[in-house]
């Protein structure tokens, strides 16, 4: 199991860590700032700096077999570090921050468009969500205006954990949820954008919506009879 530093502090760019194991699948650390691919958000890239001054380039981060296990995927041909080695794990922060901004923006999109979300992907500078919606009259300009209004209103966004039992006892907590929380693990991590959206999410987000910056709706696609795909991009 890896201590997931980004879960409590998504703004952490680096952390000291120790190598637990390294093989062809990836390098495991006792703690990390690297987010592993999941929930529509790509894994981080970055560097592991070793005590001798050398560095191993990490090209992707994926989940391992165990819960909370993170595999740092080194570039092809990299010399793997020995178990026990002390490293500094350092993410490509510029890319991660763009992913955090777009990820948070997709939460806003859930609040602007009412419909069941059936899929989504956070990309670098762009993102999309698929909605189960028979209505084909979605208005690109209206959606963009609503998103940019919520962004400019600068709502705080913060994660919080709730117990399964609390969630069951307080149905008002889940009123705005477009995704059913995973039950059976005792507690669920929620992302709350104050006054706007609340839903289960294990990803990384910015702390306030103004940090997202202006966005545009680039395209609305029909992907099947009831499936509408809304594509977003940063305006600058
Ligand atoms: Zn999220």
Largest sheet: 6 strands, antiparallel
Distinct small-molecule ligands in the complex: zinc ion
| Strand content range | 35-45%
Annotation field: number of helices: 4
Give the low-pLDDT segments: none
Radius of gyration: 19 Å
Can you put this structure into words, describing what you see?
- This protein has 236 residues and is of the alpha+beta class.
- The chain has four helices and 15 strands.
- A six-stranded antiparallel sheet has the order 3-2-8-5-6-7, with no helix packed on it. It has a four-stranded antiparallel sheet with strand order 9-10-15-14, covered by helices on one side.
- Helix 2 (93-112) packs across helix 3.
- The N and C termini lie far apart (39 Å).
- The mean pLDDT is 92.
- Bound molecules: zinc ion.
- Zinc ion (ZN) binds next to helix 2.
